[in-house]
């Protein structure tokens, strides 16, 4: 019920205009966001890097409706890529295609992604493409396929709650793509998405194992532990400690080294877990979202864990 309300609010303009202005809501969101400015995200990156954690930076915003606004988004990401390079930070960017103009014109979004990917490749960085609601899945996969053919440094997020994702993984496999597997954060119907948590978790496990088997040499082979440098990156975007531990254990019994996969978590969620994983020898990145357009994104974070509402309530009384 709470999840439905937050996911409704995430898409509601009336709720955004009223709630996003309230001081206590703004205070509560700061738990998940180091600040609205790029500088805040870069400062947080430097601090996380010192603890051995990389970051993924994403400017909040989606469903851009003006061509010139997409140009500003591209300009911003190009500046982020330069800043990462200039400050020798361990960071990369992740973008939403509707932020780059997918609602206006797929070829505009594609050209924008290519500009970002090209500069990132010149500076030795990867770029990830977020996955949005199911209205965009097919277009995102198609556009990704097109761009990935010429830009090996571009990865894609896939949501395991969608029944179609196993088939998407299969069809993308020949590209040897960098995939970030997540559970999925949008309101989807049972016709297209698993609704039950146990089913979503089982699908995550199964697709994660499939990705790892494809990314590293054949099971039992002596090369497996070596993990060739040109293997595609495999990313698990989750805070689910049980799932994380199960996957790490499974990989270890299969002889797949920790260098073959990464765990990515969101800024402000599972902070101890991020450090615990790093200390255990895993590759870990923290996804930092920043910017003024935080309302829909924050509503999705509340929907994932309604207990987060207590942070909002507590911030009502904080000064
Ligand atoms: C790096 C990264 C990138 C992502 N990219 C996308 C994307 O492109 N598209 C997309 O649809 N979704 C994306 N997501 C969100 C994802 O789909 C899930 O909605 C989200 O990660 C919650 O699921 P979970 O795997 O953490 O597991 P869950 O089973 O939901 O949670 C497991 C545990 O994690 C903790 N937890 C989970 N969420 C929260 C929260 N909001 N606040 C506090 N604790 C929490 C709780 O302790 C919970 O018990 C991304 C997530 C991550 C971590």
Outline of the structure:
The protein is an alpha/beta fold. 48% of the residues lie in helices and 13% in strands.
Explain what the structure shows.
The protein has 319 residues and is an alpha/beta fold. Helices cover 48% and strands 13% of the residues. The chain is built from 13 helices and eight strands. It has helices at residues 2-10, 13-19, 23-29, 38-50, 67-86, 106-122, 137-148, 165-172, 197-215, 241-253, 271-279, 295-304, 309-317; strands spanning 54-59, 91-95, 127-129, 154-159, 178-182, 234-237, 262-266, 283-290. The protein has an eight-stranded parallel beta barrel, surrounded by seven helices. Strand 1, helix 5 and strand 2 (91-95) form a beta-alpha-beta unit. The longest helix is centred in the first third of the chain and has 20 residues, at 67-86. The chain is globular. The two termini are 30 Å apart. Bound molecules: flavin-adenine dinucleotide.
Name its key features.
single chain; 319 residues; alpha/beta; eight-stranded parallel β-barrel; globular; binds flavin-adenine dinucleotide
Q: What is the first-to-last residue Cα distance?
A: 30 Å
pLDDT averaged residue by residue: 90
- Main pleated sheet: 8 strands, parallel, barrel
Q: What fraction of the residues are assigned to beta strands by DSSP? A: 5-15%
Count of extended strands: 8
Biggest sheet: strand arrangement = 1-2-3-4-5-6-7-8
Pick out the low-confidence regions. none
Element pattern in H and E: HHHHEHEHEHEHEHEHEHEHH
